[in-house]
Write a structure and sequence with these properties.
Length: 114
């Protein structure tokens, strides 16, 4: 229909992408520079500081971005949730700095030094 053709490129209200994924597009913006092939691996402490946003912990989305920064690839959410369950203190809202360092060290041992 002719009316639909003009709506295809129209901006969405409230800055959300199709399907109401405003939070996901914000995550993509934060990690966009890390997905470039030329991005160098970051130190775990620097990655924690860069993505914690002043908080003393990394939540699930922050942890995903930090893992991309350190290892250069995006982990699955299932793996991230398992890592949070294994490394985070009981009842903690996320992963602290020391726990993130331990996670990164364990992953490096498993994956080999990158």
């Amino acid at each position: 229909t002719p009316g639909r053709r003009g709506q295809r490129g129209a901006a969405r209200p409230s800055g959300k992408s199709a399907g109401g994924r405003g939070r996901q597009t914000a995550w993509r913006r934060r990690c966009r520079q890390l997905r470039r092939p030329a991005a160098a691996a970051m130190d775990p402490t620097a990655a924690f500081d860069a993505f914690a946003g002043g908080k003393p912990f990394l939540d699930l989305e922050d942890l995903s971005c930090a893992m991309i920064a350190v290892f250069g690839s995006k982990p699955r959410k299932r793996d991230l949730r398992a890592s949070l369950a294994q490394y985070a203190a009981p009842g903690a809202p996320g992963l602290g700095l020391e726990a993130f360092r331990a996670l990164a060290a364990d992953r490096r041992r498993l994956l080999g030094e990158r």
